[in-house]
Amino acid sequence: MRVLVSPDKFKGTLTAPQAASALGAGVRRALPDADVRLLPVADGGEGTVDALLAAGGVRRTAWVRDPLGRPVTVDWAEVDGAAVIELAAASGLRHVRPDDSTAVAADTYGTGQLIRQVLDAGLRHIVLGLGGSASTDGGTGILRALGTRFLDAAGEPIAPGGGALARLASVDLGRLDGRLAQTKVTLCCDVRSPLLGPAGAAAVFAPQKGASTASVATLEHGLSRLAATLRAATGRDAAALDWGGAAGGCAGGLHAVLGATFAPGFDLLADLVGLDRHLAWADLVLVGEGSLDSQSLAGKAPIALSVRAARLGVPVVAVAGRVDVDATPLRELGILAALGAVDVAGSVKAALADPARWTQAAAERVLGMRIGDRLRDNPAGVSRQPWA
């Protein structure tokens, strides 16, 4: 049996490559004669670069600024002439201790520095994975690093960060890096969010970054000023996009100034790693993530992969840190069986104490009891419960 092991990250415990290694070990214990292929995947957010490096991308490294201006080193991947970078690498929430002051002061300048280094390397297709950002600056930090000037009513540059956007009066694009005119910028993530309003970048996500109620209102006003100013300067309306609020409004700002386009993260990354070719090889696919739950059903990586596999007639089973969804919707989306590491470990505490061990054990359990014969003989009858 040929088994393709393609998990996303187990957020907070295992990277996608680490999860793939643990799951692969479980497969080999359960099916010693299996031909096992590891292909970690991602949804365009954090973990995207790790997945592409594991799939054969070339690692590149850069020194840039973090969300508060401190030096940090980040990796990016070169894949088939494209540069794949993560906003979270330089500008992510993981670099700060979130509170009200960081929520309004954090910016994305370091990601702009990274883009500039990609341009210096001669690449003209940039795939920017969104998600995990520390700021709500509408991408102004990125654009400042690339030459854009954001000015107040007196014609002076405003301060970095989303909190200063309320003072924005005009934008000067005259010094924007000319190489961007020949550069394709593709934004990807697994969620859509408008720039403004009750479902927008400030209202929904700024509190998660430490913003107080008053600061949320300030950030919302600033993003509104940014959208109006950029619309006047470029003719593109960041507030009209259903995805313009992604990563603290970066998606909207980069679309307005650079003409950046949006693509569902998983689909774009799947094409970069040649997923369909690997699925055509496989007899069985093992997917996974930290929590397989109702949010997963909206199209996160394991579900999106399962749907692709189902189109090719390849059966899928899943292992997650925990499984919190019924069997019926899983089957409808192509997953024939699922098991959580928590179920095997006996408790959340035990599973978190050694996530690789219990992830491996869950894979071994769910693939036990002659799964190959069961899937071939009666795939629709495979249940969500472990076969022990």
Keywords:
388 residues, alpha/beta, Rossmann fold, Glycerate kinase, domain 2, six-stranded mixed sheet, five-stranded parallel sheet, 17 helices, 13 strands, disordered C terminus
Q: What count of structural domains?
A: 2
Write down how many β-strands occur, each being a DSSP E stretch of 2 or more residues.
Answer: 13
Shape: elongated
Terminal-residue CA separation: 20 Å
Quaternary status: single chain
Largest sheet: 6 strands, mixed
Radius of gyration: 22 Å
In terms of per-residue confidence, which ranges show pLDDT below 50 for 5 or more consecutive residues? 378-388
CATH architecture descriptor of the largest domain:
Alpha-Beta Complex
CATH class of the largest domain: Alpha Beta
The CATH superfamily title of the largest domain: Glycerate kinase, domain 2
What is the beta-strand fraction?
A: 15-25%
Task: Please report the number of helical segments.
Answer: 17
Percent range of helical residues? 25-40%
Secondary-structure content class: alpha/beta
CATH topology of the largest domain: Glycerate kinase, domain 2
Mean pLDDT: 92
The helix/strand series, from N terminus to C terminus, equals: EHEHEEEHHHEHEEEHHHEHHEHEHEHHHH
Could you please describe the fold and organization of this structure?
With 388 residues, this protein is an alpha/beta fold. The protein folds into two domains: 2-40 and 283-381, 3-Layer(aba) Sandwich (Rossmann fold), CATH 3.40.50.10350; 48-265, Glycerate kinase, domain 2 (Alpha-Beta Complex), CATH 3.90.1510.10. Helix content is 40%, strand content 20%. It has helices at 16-30, 48-54, 87-91, 100-105, 109-120, 140-145, 201-205, 213-234, 246-258, 265-273, 275-281, 301-311, 327-332, 341-345, 348-353, 355-366, 371-377; strands at residues 2-7, 35-38, 58-65, 71-79, 82-86, 125-129, 149-151, 170-172, 184-189, 261-264, 284-292, 316-323, 335-340. Helix 1 crosses helix 16 and helix 8 packs parallel to helix 9. The longest helix has 22 residues, at 213-234. The model is unreliable at 378-388 (pLDDT under 50).
